[in-house]
Design goal:
single chain; alpha/beta; Hypothetical Protein Aq_1857, Chain: A; four-stranded mixed sheet; three-stranded mixed sheet; 2 helices; 7 strands
């Protein structure tokens, strides 16, 4: 199965940077998940161990896991990393096509 989410180059760079700076072991993968129900879905990213209920993907040497039951909420979503030039706030953001 192809990766159901689009991850921008900026987001990939930041993910790799976090993995290196925090010395995250190969036992962990980037988890992209969904919390909430119906129209109140909130997407999140974090690092977690792979579980039997996960689908595993690889992109630029990044292991990505998504719970199989949450795949439908993540299809055609874009994950980006942005820095606000006015406030210097930064973080991952999701956008929906």
């Amino acid at each position: 199965m192809n990766l159901p989410i689009i991850i921008t180059s900026k987001a990939k760079e930041k993910i790799i940077d976090i993995i290196q700076k925090k010395n995250i072991s190969n036992d962990y993968a980037l988890r992209i998940g969904s919390k909430g129900t119906g129209c109140n879905q909130n997407l999140y990213v974090g690092f977690d161990k792979i579980k039997e209920s996960d689908e595993v993907f690889f992109d630029n040497n990044i292991s990505i896991i998504i719970k199989k039951t949450q795949l439908m909420y993540i299809i055609n979503v874009t994950l980006d990393y942005q820095i606000d030039k006015n406030t210097n706030e930064e973080g991952f953001i999701f956008s929906f096509l």
